Input
Amino acid sequence: MSASTTPLNGWRVGVTADRRATQQVEVLRRRGAEVVTGCTMRTLDLSHDPRLLEASQALIDHPPNTTIIQTGMGLTMWLEAMDAVGVGSELRSSLAGAEILTRGPKATSAARKAGFEVEWSAPDEQLAQVVKYLASTGGRG
Output
């Protein structure tokens, strides 16, 4: 391979991801990097966590007026976990009627992909701005 296809030749790069780590390592190695891996946070399967099911069931039983979605990955994993235990559709229905506020573009994208209409998203991707917005509008309810 030429230097133009291996621009990271001579570089040592650390990948600390759990999710999609293999793909990241492959891309970096193809570009010539020596790759060291060490996961700093791990993605857990929470589909059988009774606390998550209990909290989700509470939202199904008493749908929220306003829902804040902080991360796209968090929303996606939550919905997938509830799909795995058979209440995903009920949870989506419960959340669908809520005012949906998001912390940024990834959360907005995940919410839309899940079928929710996002009413507002923080332009600076900061939770503090979501809180300020909610305090100024009073939310829906």
